[in-house]
From TrEMBL:
SUPFAM superfamilies: UDP-Glycosyltransferase/glycogen phosphorylase. CDD domains: GT1_Gtf-like. This is Glycosyltransferase. It comes from Ziziphus jujuba var. spinosa. It holds the Pfam family UDPGT.
Length: 488
């Protein structure tokens, strides 16, 4: 019992989306390895989808899963983010507060340590308020790049100066675009890192017709709230985004750049990391595709995955299909249920695109992405440019073909293509453009991209090594959490 009382207890709360759950779970595993007691909080609905929970708790006995209701009816739409966030802010707050009070009661009986602090996803609309009410220190965790975060921190000032909003230019960069967001790409942002953020640098990054647009208001508010917490944790590393990290650090109390988190796990756990890499996914992983990869020549396969949110029209899907086939490269393609607009599950999808082996490729509903990218057969990655996917691709030394969809995807794409020069952007989705991009990355410019890729990957390797900046920052985070416990 005495040991439990002395053990720091961190309550971790992700936004229940795949790209948010995975990095926070990686951090939970690292804190567990450092000897901290972790309560990982899922919503009831997302926890039902969580895979291999028992395996995670076996490998990491300091991790304990807790569930709370998001307060929304079972049939309430959770794909419409603005409605979901508003619903969570209204309905989830009392459930989260009661969980924390319950953990406090458990600590009185000695069944768990007292709560030391909270680490919450920075876009959760309820965590900071509850933490302040109960007097519990809270750290924010941001799944986006420092560059994207820095841009958002500048929006209120630009609105105040009258430099925003822009004129109406809504999501017309892709014909038949399915995005409902009026957040589009910050095409010139990626190369600019100055302290004052001129509005013209937002051209192509943020086009919105109203400064009080609910999405803008929500994310700007949550971004500013992140900087007011005990500390801000970023899944990036200093050598990758040095200037933007410097500016973000000036806006917050404490900044911890601890990425790439999945690479930390791989480095610390070795073979054990490969065993659990796909555990904790919100999707059922199809590992048979790894056997198919085993039969392919080295550096020959194109991996295609647009993440857990991106949707396409059926016409877009077919153009991608023809582009892939025409390229002549073998491919592994993730087409998750619901990825095609207007189609439930896989209904309406042509037989050639249903899960299973194909003449020149393999289609799955979800893949073990880390293992796929690390496979010797992989040659390139056609991606939506989510930050987690970009980091995983960098660590695996796999050049990218970027097809950004929303939010930070555009900034990430510009970093990949213009700053680090480790990929190309797919500026249209017709079959000839898709084919041309694949051949550029996997044939004509293959060696050039690999040289750039090796340089950036070396930065990632060094930062998690002993004495590396990310490794030191992770140690500092653990140390600071322990200090909270010592002074509580």
């Amino acid at each position: 019992m005495e040991k439990k009382k002395q053990q720091p207890h961190v309550v971790m709360v992700p936004l229940p989306l795949q790209g948010h759950v995975k990095p926070l779970l990686c951090l939970a595993q690292l804190l567990s390895e450092a000897g901290l007691y972790v309560s990982f909080v899922n919503t009831t609905q997302s926890h039902k989808r969580f895979t291999n929970v028992e395996t995670i708790t076996t490998y990491f006995p300091n991790i304990h899963f807790e569930c709370i209701s998001d307060g929304l009816p079972e049939d309430h739409p959770r794909a419409l983010l603005t409605e979901y966030f508003e619903g969570m802010k209204r309905e989830t707050t009392p459930h989260f507060k009661e969980l924390l009070l319950s953990l406090g009661r458990k600590s009185l009986t000695g069944s768990s340590p007292p709560v030391t602090c909270i680490i919450a996803d920075g876009v959760l609309p309820f965590a900071v308020g509850v933490a302040e009410e109960l007097g519990i220190p809270i750290f924010s965790f941001c799944v986006h790049s420092a560059r994207f975060l820095w841009g958002y921190l500048n929006i209120p000032k630009l609105i105040e100066e009258g430099q925003l909003p822009f004129s109406v230019i809504c999501c017309q960069h892709k014909k038949d675009s399915v995005s409902r967001w009026q957040l589009v790409s910050l095409y010139q942002w990626s190369s600019w890192t100055g302290r004052h953020f001129p509005a013209q640098r937002l051209t192509g990054i943020l086009h919105f017709t109203r400064s009080h647009h609910p999405i803008i208001k929500f994310f700007v508010g949550e971004t500013i709230a992140m900087t007011k917490t005990s500390g801000l944790i970023l899944n990036t590393f200093d050598e990758l985004e040095d200037s933007c990290i410097y500016h973000v650090s000036s806006a917050c109390n404490n900044l911890y750049t601890v990425g790439p988190l999945h690479a930390h796990i791989n480095s610390k756990l070795g073979d054990r990391a490969r065993t659990i890499a796909s555990h904790g996914s919100l999707y059922s992983v199809e590992e048979k595709c790894l056997e198919w990869l085993d039969s392919q020549p080295p550096k020959s396969v194109l991996y295609v995955s647009f993440g857990s949110i991106t949707q396409t029209s059926l016409s877009q899907l077919m153009e991608f299909w023809h582009g892939l086939v025409n390229s002549g490269q073998p491919f592994l393609w993730v087409i998750r249920p619901g990825a095609v607009i207007g189609e439930e599950g896989n209904e309406g999808i042509p037989e050639d695109l249903l899960p299973g082996p194909k003449e020149r490729g393999y289609v799955v509903e979800w893949a073990p992405q880390e293992q796929v990218l690390a496979h010797h057969a992989l040659g390139a990655f056609l991606t939506h440019s989510g930050w987690g996917s970009v980091l995983e691709s960098i660590v695996a030394k796999i050049p990218m073909i970027c097809w950004p969809y929303m939010g930070d995807h555009y900034i990430n794409t510009q970093c990949v293509t213009k700053v680090w020069e480790i990929g190309v952007e797919l500026e249209a989705w017709d079959r000839s453009t898709v084919e041309k991009a694949i051949k550029s990355v996997m044939e004509t410019k293959k060696e050039d991209f690999q040289i750039s890729m090796d340089k950036v990957a070396k930065l990632a390797e060094d930062t998690i090594s002993k004495g590396g900046s990310s490794s030191q920052n992770l140690d500092k985070l653990v140390e600071d959490i322990r200090k909270i416990k010592a002074t509580a």
